[in-house]
UniProtKB/TrEMBL annotation:
It catalyses: fluoride(in) = fluoride(out). The chain crosses the membrane at residues 48-67, 79-103. One of its GO terms (molecular function) is fluoride channel activity. Pfam families: CRCB. The gene is fluC. The keyword Chaperone does not apply. Signal peptide: none annotated. InterPro entries: FluC (IPR003691). Na(+) is not transported, but it plays an essential structural role and its presence is essential for fluoride channel function. This is Fluoride-specific ion channel FluC. GO terms for biological process: cellular detoxification of fluoride. Its main location: membrane. It is found in: Cell membrane.
Length: 106
């Protein structure tokens, strides 16, 4: 199980880096997609959730990068942009996760 978890985490990290480099607002899109996937996976058996939810989604999403982006905006005195990024990401990710849960709920 540990090997599958590690492989899923490696795949998640690689996918995050690849998507972030290719699409505008990549980290926000990645975090929303990962939140949606996590919501979908919640109803799966614990082993599947562990590998894909914790492994893949855990490495795919990154709140720390969003936090650093917000800090950079604050340092540039772009307060509204920092607030929009922070709260927009949170709202988007909560909505995406809820949508995933709704789609795959019994």
């Amino acid at each position: 199980m540990a090997i599958l978890l590690a492989l899923a985490a490696a795949a998640g990290g690689i996918c995050r880096v690849a998507l972030d480099a290719r699409i505008p607002h990549g980290i926000m899109v990645v975090n929303a997609a990962g939140s949606f996937l996590l919501g979908l996976l919640y109803a799966f058996p614990p082993e599947v959730f562990l590998v894909l939810g914790v492994g893949f989604c855990g490495a795919f999403t990154t709140f720390s990068t969003t936090t650093m982006d917000a800090i950079a905006l604050l340092r540039d005195r772009r307060y509204l942009a920092a607030a929009a990024l922070t709260f927009g990401t949170l709202a988007l990710c909560l909505t995406a996760c809820a949508a995933g849960l709704l789609i795959h709920s019994p």
